[in-house]
User: Which sequence fits this backbone?
């Protein structure tokens, strides 16, 4: 697999604000990569640096192995689909789509041919003479995509392109976009804050927070094996426990949490280390009796029936609320009864904790020998 | 018992409902009626009346005032006037666009300072400000004195009382009326559109011609109306800066009312000027201009 876009130690400052921090990211040819994160996490800024609208404050950005840092947006083989679409309001659909080719002085006949191909692809034949104001949101969206794709970019950058559409249209466009990307084989870099959108469409997801890349992995890995507490929390629903590694034996770790001991698969952790443990709601099971190694006992607060799934909430002695999703037909203790909780050890994801780093930093501080 | 008639009741209720509207709108309405509508109708009527031998207005319908406007001497004045107005407008556009562009794209602080630069001159009467140019550019003015002193020239340059000096006066007086609407449209311009143009291969100049210019054209046109039309009529600029050597349509109208005592002819000239303005405004709305932007100054 060839690397298409490579970001190395990319930083971006706005004055004092450090919005992108030492970002390293390499994107393969033909890949659908999504940058996912809450607003202000630096994902759009990163996209704009690849497009050339923002200058990075340090590091290098390469497209096909060539450094593009000093190139103007129009000199880069990338095109952008803007969040607001940015269609030219004074030009009709045809002229909007043809804009890039006209700038490249492509012969008129060829422009006509290629615009018509694009119109066929986005299923807007017969709309050539319409002005953007006369189009619906979804139609405008498709024109914006066609306007970018007609230039045959190596990479298409999409900045929350579906944000302005209603839910149903958004779902439909997600599938259409994914299909289009597969068909054309163009590298897509897609920015969104919608985790479901990211999981549906991407080959890989780059989860960002506060300018830092938290995790870069395929959707299933992001979901099943989140590497940080933030990722576990942000992608799907999750129950996160703060715990300390108490025991490691035969590939099983016993972890001490405030409400009691729990089990997880063994990993790269030392006894005594502070960790986060994430367990998805659908992985937690109810039990009538204590399960071996689990001391989680709580009060069943409520069951909510949502069709095929029953969402339950259990309150632990420390006040922590645990979300549990069970299928209809599974064992369910009645509301207000005491329930024991457990899970298969491979379903608990253990993550290093920032708190642990901080404590070990304090341990290693040289206090200057005043105590001697 | 005398029950009030139900119909009268609804009328009274309706009046009661309208009371807030009537009380708030009527002062402005009366103002517009007395100071604008009635005088305009008066001028319109006047333009169809005759002038008696002793200079009074005679109530006899005639079209001669309008046919007289085709007098070759007058046509010469229209042409000069339009030419001066045209150049004033073009120069205003060329000066305003970069100014407004920097103002719209500048920091808040820069914006405030530049806006003040535009507005502060309004605090002084334009007549007085025009007199200032005389001290600067007159034969005995600062510039000429300086040039004579340096020995670059032997006799004073005739700068004042020429057509260029009238254009200078027009531009100086009317520049803010161009800057403000142009600024309003540039400010409204979506910057993402320029990024999109750049992304799609347009270099700076192309992006300007393809995106910025067409989308700010309504502002430029609005400003042009507000500069061009007054330029035809600002007789005091021609009087002060042109020394009475050049007649504008405005001077002509003024002369009919004062010197020549031919009010009907002056009125017909005014009507033509008003119709011309309305035609321009109509073109402006046809090309997609917003009437509210015209009122920005």
Assistant:
């Amino acid at each position: 697999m060839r690397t298409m876009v490579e970001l190395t130690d990319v930083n971006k400052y706005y004055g004092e604000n450090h919005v992108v921090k030492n970002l390293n990211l390499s994107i393969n040819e033909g890949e659908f990569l999504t940058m996912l994160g809450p607003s202000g996490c630096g994902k759009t800024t990163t996209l704009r640096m690849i497009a050339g609208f923002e200058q990075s404050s340090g590091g290098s950005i390469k497209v096909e192995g060539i450094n593009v840092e000093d190139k103007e947006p129009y000199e880069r083989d990338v095109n952008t689909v803007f969040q607001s679409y940015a269609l030219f309001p004074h030009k009709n659909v045809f002229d909007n789509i043809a804009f890039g080719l006209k700038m490249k002085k492509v012969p008129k006949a060829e422009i006509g041919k290629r615009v018509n191909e694009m119109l066929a692809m986005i299923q807007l034949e017969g709309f050539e003479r319409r002005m953007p104001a006369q189009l619906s949101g979804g139609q405008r969206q498709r024109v914006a995509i066609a306007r970018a794709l007609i230039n045959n970019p190596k990479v298409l950058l999409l900045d929350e392109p579906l944000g302005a559409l209603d839910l149903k249209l958004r779902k439909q466009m997600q599938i259409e976009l994914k299909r289009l990307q597969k068909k054309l084989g163009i590298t897509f870099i897609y920015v969104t804050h919608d985790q479901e959108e990211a999981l549906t469409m991407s080959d890989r997801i780059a989860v960002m927070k506060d300018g830092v890349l938290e995790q870069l992995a395929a959707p299933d890995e992001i979901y099943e094996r989140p590497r940080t507490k933030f990722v576990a929390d942000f992608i799907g629903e999750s129950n996160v426990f703060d715990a300390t590694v108490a025991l490691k034996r035969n590939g099983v770790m016993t972890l001490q949490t405030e409400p009691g001991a729990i089990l997880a698969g063994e990993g790269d952790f030392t006894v005594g280390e502070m960790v986060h443990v994430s367990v998805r709601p659908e992985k937690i099971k109810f039990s009538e009796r204590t399960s071996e190694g689990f001391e989680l006992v709580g009060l069943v607060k409520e069951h909510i029936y949502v069709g095929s799934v029953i969402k339950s909430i259990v309150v632990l002695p420390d006040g922590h609320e645990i979300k549990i999703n069970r299928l209809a037909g599974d064992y369910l203790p009645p509301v207000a009864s005491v329930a024991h909780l457990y899970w298969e050890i491979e379903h608990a994801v253990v993550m290093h904790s920032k708190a642990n780093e901080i404590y070990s930093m304090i341990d290693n501080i040289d206090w200057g020998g005043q105590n001697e | 018992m005398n029950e009030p008639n139900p119909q009268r009741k609804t009328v009274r209720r309706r009046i009661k409902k309208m009371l807030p509207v009537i009380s708030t709108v009527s002062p402005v309405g009366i103002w517009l009626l007395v100071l604008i509508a009635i005088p305009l109708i008066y001028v319109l009527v006047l333009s169809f009346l005759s002038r008696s031998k002793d200079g009074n207005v005679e109530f006899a319908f005639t079209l001669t005032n309008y046919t007289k406007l085709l007098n070759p001497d007058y046509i010469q004045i229209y042409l000069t006037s339009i030419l001066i107005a045209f150049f004033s407008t073009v120069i205003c556009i060329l000066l305003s666009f970069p100014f407004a562009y920097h103002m719209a794209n500048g920091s808040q602080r820069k914006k405030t300072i530049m806006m003040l630069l535009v507005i502060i001159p309004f605090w002084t009467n334009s007549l007085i400000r025009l007199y200032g140019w005389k001290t600067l550019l007159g034969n005995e003015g600062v510039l000429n004195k300086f040039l004579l002193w340096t020995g670059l020239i032997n006799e004073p340059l005739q700068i004042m009382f020429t057509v260029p000096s009238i254009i200078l006066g027009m531009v100086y007086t009317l520049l803010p009326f161009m800057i403000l609407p142009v600024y309003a449209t540039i400010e409204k311009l979506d910057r993402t559109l320029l990024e999109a143009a750049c992304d799609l291969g347009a270099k700076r100049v192309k992006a300007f011609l393809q995106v910025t210019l067409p989308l700010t054209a309504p502002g430029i046109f609005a400003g042009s109306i507000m500069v061009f039309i007054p330029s035809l009529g600002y007789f005091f600029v021609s009087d002060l800066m042109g020394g009475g050597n050049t007649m504008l349509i405005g001077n002509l109208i003024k002369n009919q009312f004062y010197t020549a005592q031919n009010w009907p002819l002056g009125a017909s000239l005014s009507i033509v000027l008003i119709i011309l303005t309305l035609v321009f405004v109509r073109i402006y709305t046809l090309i997609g201009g917003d009437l509210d932007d015209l009122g920005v100054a």
